[in-house]
Amino acid sequence: MMAERKYSINAIYDTVNSIGLTIVKAQFYKMLKNELYAGWLCKFGERHKGKFEPIISEEIFNRVQQVMRNKKTPLVYKSEHPDFPLRRFVIHPQKHKLTGAWSKGRNNKYAYYRFIGTRLYWPKIELEKTYEEFIDKYSFDDYLFGKLKKEILNRFSMRSLNIVRDKEALSSRKQQLKEKQRAFLQKNINGIISDSLLKEQLIVIEDEIWAIDNGITQIEEKKVDAERILQFLEEFLIHPSLTWKNLPLDIKVKLQWFQFPEGVTFDGKRFRTVKISSIFKLKQFFLTKNSPMVRRAGFEPAEPEGVRFTV
């Protein structure tokens, strides 16, 4: 991120802290200047190339040092900005795109969103709060999430059972091939088969064993951490706005487009959308399928009503 100069160092520092690297800013600067990551050992006034795989290339390391030395180097255009996650995602009904910028006041700086080509603008904190209220209209309560969790666990259980069966079948076949190898070797020792025939058969067996090992590896890669997925789903579905707010920029933007694949519109008063993620449609499914709650016709619309925005 630093090498690309798409974000300020403060934004990068906030991002790495948000994902768990909790260090003071002085240590963060020191980390960016540490040549050890590029494969160099610098101690006691000497500098030697380490006999280990560097984490980053020298090219990236040197570019970062140049960026840090030359703070006046102009930044490239930011297609995504960590301070304005709703940029390009929200559009006006008349197709104006939303952008964001900082405005310098007499004593402070202020963040605003505005529609390009118009005089419509809103303080960042207020527009994002209204967006959070909008996505919270899609939230699940504990009862609904409990039904979804039960269904997911059933699916995971079936999937895990199939994975175990497939792995056992491959392991059993591998064992048979190992026994076949030993049998051919014994026949060769006893003079029953020639060396050339032994070599030919062993190659065929080894090829099949390699394919089995590859299949077992692929099965292992298909395993998923059901508890971790359910934990995120619970946070996301019960508290959509809180989840969105606490994510790093790249994940936050991906989540927005996942929730609303065609983006959202904002006319200055309300957020609206014409298409929602399939996972939100499950709310309607579970409410209408064997639900003990009494529902009035039309009480749960396919799409929640837009959220009003008051300046």
Describe the SSE topology.
Blueprint (H helix, E strand, L loop, with lengths): L8 H10 L6 H8 L7 E4 L2 E4 L8 H12 L20 E2 L6 E7 L4 E7 L5 E3 H13 L5 H48 L5 H28 L3 H13 L1 H7 L2 H11 L4 E3 L3 E3 L5 H11 L18 E2 L3
Parallel strand pairs: 3-7
Antiparallel strand pairs: 1-2, 4-5, 5-6, 7-8, 8-9
Entry summary:
The protein is an alpha+beta fold. The protein is built from 10 helices and 9 strands. It is 52% helix and 11% strand.
Question: Overview of this structure, please?
Answer:
The chain has 311 residues and is α+β, with helices and mostly antiparallel strands. It folds into three domains: 9-69, Hect, E3 ligase catalytic domain fold (Alpha-Beta Complex), CATH 3.90.1750; 79-139 and 239-311, no CATH class; 143-227. The chain contains ten helices and nine strands. The chain has helices spanning 9-18, 25-32, 58-69, 124-136, 142-189, 195-222, 226-238, 240-246, 249-259, 278-288, and strands spanning 40-43, 46-49, 90-91, 98-104, 109-115, 121-123, 264-266, 270-272, 307-308. The strands form three sheets. Strands 3-7-8-9 form a four-stranded mixed beta sheet, covered by helices on one side. Helix 4 (124-136) packs across helix 8 (240-246) and helix 5 (142-189) runs antiparallel to helix 6 (195-222). It starts with 8 loop residues before the first helix and ends with a strand. The model is unreliable at 73-78 and 291-311 (pLDDT under 50).
